Amino acid sequence: MELTPYEQREPDEDEMIVAMIAAMKRQQESDYPPGATGRAAHAKHTALLEMSFAVHEDIPAHLRVGVFAEPRVYQGYLRFSNGNGAPQPDGIKDLRGAALKLHGVDGEHIPESDELDTQDFILLNTPAIPLGTVRLFTDVITLSQAKFAARTAVSHPHVLAGLAKAVITPSSPADIPYWSNVAALLGPDQVVKYSIVPTSEYTSPAREKHDDNFLGDHLEQHLAQGPVTFDFKIQLRTDPQSMPVEDIAVEWSETASVPVTVATVIVQPQPFRTAARNSLAEELAFSPAHALVEHRPIGAVARARIAIYAQMVSWRHDRDGRTGTA
Length: 326
Ligand code: HEM
Prior knowledge:
The protein is an alpha+beta fold. The chain has one domain: Catalase core domain (Catalase HpII,  Chain A, domain 1), CATH 2.40.180.10. The protein is about 25% helix and about 20% strand. It contains seven helices and ten strands. The chain has helices at about 15-30, 135-140, 145-155, 160-165, 215-225, 275-285, 300-320, and strands at about 45-55, 75-80, 95-100, 120-125, 180, 185, 190-200, 230-235, 260-265, 295-300. Strands 1, 2, 3, 4, 5, 6, 7, 8, 9 and 10 form a ten-stranded antiparallel sheet that branches. Helix 1 (about 15-30) packs parallel to helix 7 (about 300-320). The longest helix is centred in the C-terminal third of the chain and has 20 residues, at about 300-320. It is globular and about 45 Å long. The protein binds protoporphyrin IX containing FE.
């Protein structure tokens, strides 16, 4: 993979990618029987929802690039997930994911993409994940918990406390903001991150006790009241020193560069707890590789993910005798 001028190679990147893939496959083989292989990360979807993505008219000229070039409405999917590698009760603190897939996206896709008409945006409930490098991701994925904790306590003392803060139990996946963490190009000479911020009129009540699937229950109750909406925002990198590409543990200050709303995510009321929707959730693949050339995700973690997701998706689909689909 050729590097953009904004990127640098991390030592042993390729070897670490191979090691992570091997460790995740081993874990999946022990977690899932063939025929029912969940994702190696973000295994449990709290909902897969049909979504519209409405690009606004009044976008500043420099942000009118790629899917944001013209005001139009894309149809697609929004998958809310819990971060853990195996499904677990929603009440357990966890990273929470929101993955958006836009369909009908014309234009040149990055060569690594195996989908030719989509643009994915993959987001987490934290603006900056303490595992800032491929090295740290490799350690957390390949080492035992005890070894990782011991090694990190010495080499990166803030990581464990940072991870403990990043895991949350929200009242609903629809009520919290999400960020891309990794940077992406916006055309040839701009670097950005993305976020979505909830704007629904309805918000779910906080509860003391949590049923195992309460996040889906709360979404269902929300959609019975009205749509789920988010503002989709672009944050421009305005200072390369304080807004690095290669260390995603560093949060880009939203005061120094205020995120600009460029689109609205709209989820209309719909039944989503159906066998067909659950099966589609396993079939769909969200990946940083599903990107227009103008939106290429950049940085070592993005490069690793582009390589890893493709292999992990085809492996889980093959293991389950699925062909895979966009
Ligand atoms: C090198 C670091 C990382 C590795 C190895 C990794 C690995 C994975 C894998 C294997 C999957 C499942 C793919 C599939 O089978 O469909 C996944 C899903 C996901 N990852 Fe990562 N990941 C990494 C970093 C990140 C980062 C930085 C984010 C921040 C946005 C992130 C957010 C997500 C989300 C939200 C999903 C669920 C996507 C969906 O709904 O299908 N990951 N990750």
